[in-house]
Design a protein that fits this description.
The chain contains ten helices and six strands. With 228 residues, the chain is of the alpha/beta class. The protein folds into two domains: 7-18 and 106-227, HAD superfamily/HAD-like (Rossmann fold), CATH 3.40.50; 19-102, Orthogonal Bundle (DNA polymerase, domain 1). A six-stranded parallel beta sheet has the order 3-2-1-4-5-6, sandwiched between helices. Strand 2 (122-127), helix 6 and strand 3 form a beta-alpha-beta unit. Helix 1 crosses helix 2, helix 2 packs antiparallel against helix 3 and helix 3 (65-79) crosses helix 4. The radius of gyration is 18 Å and the shape is globular. It comes from Flavobacterium hankyongi. InterPro entries: HAD-like_sf, HAD-SF_hydro_IA, HAD-SF_hydro_IA_YjjG/PynA, HAD_2, HAD_sf, PGP-like_dom2, Pyrimidine_5'-ntase_YjjG.
Length: 228
C-alpha cells in the first residue's frame, strides 16, 4: 500500500507529543503559584474536552487565537464554579503557554519509530499549533532533527483540514501527492483533510475509538515500522 511513499507527514500534538500529559504538568506549575487550591486532575478532566471543542472551532475559523486562549480557561473555570478574573485568566494563559514546552512526554515508541523511518523516508510536520510553541516542543523534546520541514497554520495562512496547508507543506518539502502520506490523531483535520487533498492518510488511534474499516489506522507508533 505504501510502496511509493517517500515523504511522511506527521501531526505533532496528540500524535508524537503527548499533549495531555504535558498540559497537566504545565498547569501544575502555573496553579501552584496562582491557584494552589485547584485540584489538577479534576481541572484537566474538565479542561481537556473544552480545549478540544475550542480547537475545533479555531481550525474551522469560528474562533480566533485570542478567543481560544481565553475561552478554554474561562469555560473550564465556569464548569468548576470557580470565580477567576479576566486579568488572572490572561496571566494563567500566558504562563501556561510559557511552561507547556518544558514538559516533553512523547508517545510510546515515538523516538524509536522516528529513528527507523528517518533512515528510509523524508519526515515532515504539519501542525495547526502556534509556531513559536511548536518549535519549542520539537526542540525541547529532542525530535526536531528528524524532520526535513515543519509547516504550521500561521505559515500557511490556513489550518488543517483546509487543502491549502497540505499544498504548502508538500511544496515546501518538494513532495508529490502520490509519494506522500499524512499521520495524525484527528479524523477531520488530519485524515479527512489529507484524503480530500489527494494524499493517503493513517489515523493515530491511541484511544482505540471505533472507526470505519475504511480508515487506515494504528494504535501505537511502533506499528509504523511494520507498514513502511
Amino acid at each position: 500500500m505504501y510502496s511509493k511513499i517517500s515523504h511522511i507527514f506527521f501531526d505533532l500534538d496528540h500524535t508524537l507529543w503527548d499533549f495531555d500529559k504535558n498540559s497537566e504538568k504545565a498547569f501544575e506549575v502555573v496553579f501552584s503559584e496562582v491557584l494552589p487550591e485547584i485540584n489538577i486532575e479534576k481541572f484537566v478532566s474538565v479542561y481537556a474536552p473544552i480545549n478540544q471543542a475550542c480547537w475545533k472551532l479555531y481550525q474551522n475559523n469560528l474562533m480566533t487565537h485570542d478567543e481560544l486562549r481565553y475561552r478554554r480557561l474561562k469555560d473550564s473555570f465556569d464548569a468548576l464554579n470557580v470565580s477567576v478574573s479576566d486579568a488572572l485568566i490572561d496571566k494563567i494563559s500566558d504562563d501556561y503557554i510559557l511552561n507547556l514546552p518544558n514538559s516533553n512526554h512523547l508517545f510510546e515508541g515515538c523516538v524509536e519509530t522516528l529513528e527507523y523511518l528517518h533512515k528510509k523516508y523524508k519526515l515532515h510536520i504539519i501542525t495547526n499549533g502556534f509556531a513559536e510553541v511548536q518549535f519549542k516542543k520539537l526542540n525541547n523534546s529532542g525530535i526536531h532533527h528528524f524532520f526535513e520541514t515543519v509547516t504550521n497554520s500561521e505559515m500557511a495562512g490556513v489550518k488543517k483540514p483546509h487543502s491549502g496547508i497540505f499544498e504548502h507543506a508538500l511544496s515546501k518539502a518538494s513532495a508529490e501527492k502520490e509519494e506522500s502520506v499524512m499521520i495524525g490523531d484527528c479524523l477531520d483535520a488530519d485524515v479527512a483533510g489529507a484524503i480530500n487533498f489527494g494524499i493517503q492518510s493513517i489515523f493515530f488511534n491511541s484511544e482505540k475509538i471505533d472507526v470505519s474499516k475504511d480508515v487506515n489506522q494504528i494504535t501505537n507508533l511502533a506499528e509504523l515500522k511494520y507498514l513502511f
